[in-house]
Amino acid sequence: MILTIRGDDMSKPLRMYFLCVHNRCRSQMAEAFAKHFAGDQIIAGSAGVEEREIHPMTIKVMKEAGIDISDYRSKRIDMKAFISSHMIVKLCEQVNEKCPSVPFGIQSVQWDIPDPTPVNSGHGNIEDFRTARDLIKEKVIQLLKEQNVLHVLR
Fold first, then answer.
1. Per-residue pLDDT of the chain (154 residues; tens, 9 = 90+)
2. Which of 22, 40, 78, 134 has the most CB atoms around it within 10 Å of its CB?
3. Any domain includes 122
4. Which residues does the annotation mark as catalytic?
5. Backbone angles phi, psi at 26, to 5 degrees
6. Domain that includes residue 49, residue range
7. In 3D, which of 138, 125, 39, 27 has the Cα closest to residue 82?
8. At what angle do helices 56-64 and 26-38 cross, to 10 degrees?
C-alpha cells in the first residue's frame, strides 16, 4: 500500500519538492536520496530560485554513496510542480526568503543545510560536500520514516 500525508487519497504517491537557491547541490542530493529510499511511493523533484550547473563534486560524492546523478539537470522552480506537491522541503534559509509562499494545505519543511559550494571561484572542499551529503541523507531518511514511505535501507 502506498501512503501519503494527504488524507483524501492514500493510493497516490507522495509528491515531494526539494528547493535550494541554485539547484546545484543540496536539493539535487535530497531528490536523489528520496527517490533511492522511497522508490515508487513518492514523486520527488528539485529546483532552485535560480539555476546553475550541478557542481561536479555533488555528482562525485553522490556516486561515493552509490547513487549516480550524472544525468540530473538544474531547474528553476516550476509553479505547477510547486502547487501540486504534498510537501515542499527548503534546504536553506536563503530559499525561504526568495521562494514563493507555500500554499495552505501543502506541508512546508525547513532545513538549514550549509552550502558546500564555494562562494568565490574554485572547486570547493570535498569534505564539505560529504558533510552536506551525509546530513541530507539523514534528514531525508527521517522524513521518509515520518511519512511511512521509507523502503528497506539499502
1. 333 344 445 568 999 999 999 999 999 999 999 999 999 999 999 999 988 899 999 999 999 999 999 999 999 999 999 999 999 999 988 877 788 888 899 999 999 999 998 765 556 799 999 999 999 999 999 999 999 998 866 5
2. 22
3. yes
4. 20, 92, 99
5. -60, -50
6. 14-141
7. 27
8. 30
19 assigned to some structural domain: yes
Residue 40 placed within a domain:
yes
> Structurally, how many domains does the chain consist of?
1
- CA torsion sign for 55, 48, 27, 120 is positive
Residue 148 in any domain: the answer is no
For residue 2, CA distances in Å to 6, 43, 44, 150 come to 11, 12, 15, 11
Domain CATH code at residue 110 = 3.40.50.2300
